Amino acid sequence: AVVSTQSTRGTSTNGATHKIPGRVSDSVIPGAGAFVDNRVGGAVATGDGDVMMRFSPAFLTVEIMRGGARPHDAAVESIKRIAKKYPQFSGALVAASKD
């Protein structure tokens, strides 16, 4: 039985231990830490939050999926775009289609 047709997202942060006073976490920035579109699917990201806020990789991954890419391929493309600018970047994406 289908309980719900709506998607949701959840993220975590490295916590207050590493928080710079006055800085907003990337977890709360739509598209940086997570993004979901019920018609396409969703993605969550982990890694350097300052870089994530510049590239919105979760949003980008979902948009690439919207264009027909498989979740894995969309996530790889998003990471490649970050790595092109930041070769030492360390992070990851998890993506899933609505199907």
Description:
The protein has 99 residues and is of the alpha+beta class. Helices cover 32% and strands 18% of the residues. It has three helices and three strands, in the order E-E-H-H-H-E. It has helices at 49-55, 57-66, 71-85, and strands at 34-37, 41-47, 91-97. Strands 1-2-3 form a three-stranded antiparallel beta sheet. It is globular and about 40 Å long.
Tally of helical runs: 3
Q: Largest sheet, described in full? A: 3 strands, antiparallel
Main sheet strand line-up: 1-2-3
Give the N-to-C terminal Cα separation. 15 Å
| Unreliable sequence segments | none
Beta-strand portion reads 15-25%
* SSE ordering: EEHHHE
Residue share in helices? 25-40%
Number of strands: 3
Mean pLDDT: 82
Radius of gyration: 14 Å
Q: Classify the secondary structure makeup into a structural class.
A: alpha+beta
- The 3D shape can be described as globular
Helix-strand layout with pairing:
Layout: E1 34-37, E2 41-47, H1 49-55, H2 57-66, H3 71-85, E3 91-97
Antiparallel strand pairs: 1-2, 2-3
Tags for this model:
three-stranded antiparallel sheet; alpha+beta; 3 strands; 99 residues
Summarize this entry quickly.
By secondary structure, this protein is an alpha+beta fold. Helices cover 32% and strands 18% of the residues.
